[in-house]
Design brief:
Elements (H helix, E strand, L loop, with lengths): L1 E5 L6 H8 L8 E14 L5 E18 L1 H11 L5 E9 L2 E9 L7 E4 L2 H21 L6 H23 L14 E11 L3 E9 L10 E7 L2 E9 L4 E8 L1 H6 L5 E4 L1 E4 L6 H13 L5 E9 L8 E8 L9 E2 L8 E7 H9 L6 H19 L2
Parallel strand pairs: 1-5, 10-15
Antiparallel strand pairs: 1-3, 2-3, 2-6, 4-5, 7-8, 8-9, 10-11, 10-13, 11-12, 11-17, 14-15, 16-17
Length: 374
């Protein structure tokens, strides 16, 4: 059995429970302090580091940890370049020996005192969701493999935070997440995307619960989509790029004409994503965003969720060209269309991108207002 002192994000009990894979009331922990140390923030990061010096670091002493507990903690902390070292911790006035995760990395620069309260309010829910997926690979994947997946793990965690914090939209049945029961969940594939297979029961309209049914769901992320519109020139900008979906379906037209779109990265808001993607995909600076709506792409078997915007901007003739991020293998061409030309494409059923059609129809209802305010 081992005793371990935690001073940073693992003091957030829901995170600790996720890492150790057991309820908080099953974890032997007491409040303790570590004299001669300070908990500092890190420049450009949201996690802390432990610094030797004047002061006292507050934390939790985790007692009687099993080897599996330590292995799980090592697996989680291994993603942050920490190693264990022995320390003397004070608990209730008595000194006891323990170990603490400590980093001597020169890359991380201390920055002031770190606040657990502030961190929990800003990052707690996101970090718990991220940790739950990270720890689901404990025993089956190496820490290095999980580190390579972190960008998409973070994006899926952000999607869960957005789903939890978003409004409950029109819901005539009144049923919600409390009216289902997950009996089994497995993740047979995870990389850039993931697949989850579940056995689930759901409330029937007669009030009873269904028998367990087996289903699979494609685990995408939230995405921000923006249709750039110049209300003065009455023009929109569309982008075109190669897409694997139509290719796998067997479509002959595998280059898609689309609005600008991109994944909502970990810790990012959909609005920030829309502005970032407009710059990356078309070199555009948006003046403001008009919210079109938010919706699932295909709720029967996909978590992907779209945040749709019309982005007000200037669109001179020379704005078009080829752009995209080279490190993401993007090769994106932009085109200008007049409003009338866009709506003619809609009317002739020449567009096969659902978000673009929705955004064009929204624009048709709000165009006069946007032009009047230009």
């Amino acid at each position: 059995m081992a005793d371990l002192f935690v001073y940073g994000t693992l003091r957030h009990v829901p995170l600790l429970a996720a890492v150790l894979d057991r309820p908080a009331d099953k974890i032997d922990m007491v409040i303790g302090t570590l004299p001669g140390h300070r908990v500092n923030g890190v420049v450009g990061e949201d996690f802390p580091i432990l610094s030797v010096g004047e002061g006292t670091a507050e934390g939790l002493l985790l007692r009687n940890l099993s080897q599996t507990d330590v292995d799980r903690l090592d697996f989680y902390e291994g993603g942050y370049d920490y190693a264990l070292k022995p320390v003397d911790v004070v608990v209730g006035g008595a000194v006891t020996s323990a170990q603490v995760y400590f980093s001597e990395s020169a890359v991380w620069q201390p920055e002031g005192d770190w606040s657990l309260k502030d961190w929990s309010e800003r990052h707690g829910s996101f970090t718990v969701h991220k940790a739950m997926e990270e720890m689901s690979y404990f025993g089956s994947r190496s820490r290095r493999e999980v580190d390579r997946m972190l960008p998409t793990i973070k994006a899926r965690a952000s999607a869960k935070v957005l789903a939890e914090s978003g409004p409950i939209r029109h819901n005539p049945s009144g049923f919600d997440v409390t009216d289902i029961e997950i009996h089994r969940l497995e993740r047979p594939y995870a990389n850039f995307f993931a697949i989850e297979e579940v056995d689930v029961s759901f409330r029937r309209y007669d009030g009873s619960m269904s028998q367990p049914v087996n289903r699979a769901v494609f685990m995408g992320t939230d995405a921000a989509l923006v249709l750039p519109y110049d209300p003065v020139r009455d023009k929109v900008l569309l982008v075109e790029q190669f897409r694997l979906g139509p290719t796998a379906r067997g479509d002959r037209k595998v280059w898609q004409l689309e609005p600008i779109a991109g994944r909502v990265d970990g810790g990012e808001t959909p609005e920030a994503t829309a502005h970032r993607e407009a710059q990356e995909e078309a070199g555009l600076t948006l003046q403001r965003l008009e919210e079109v709506g938010s919706s699932y792409a295909s709720p029967g078997g996909c978590t992907e969720y779209f945040h749709l915007y019309v982005g007000i901007t200037n669109l001179p003739d020379d704005v078009i060209g080829v752009s995209g991020l080279e490190d993401e293998a993007e090769d994106i061409r932009s085109y200008l269309y007049s409003y009338d030309a866009l709506m003619e494409l809609v009317d002739r059923r020449e567009l096969d991108n659902a978000p673009l059609i929705l955004m064009a129809l929204w624009l048709s209802r709000h165009r006069e207002r946007l032009r009047a305010g230009a």
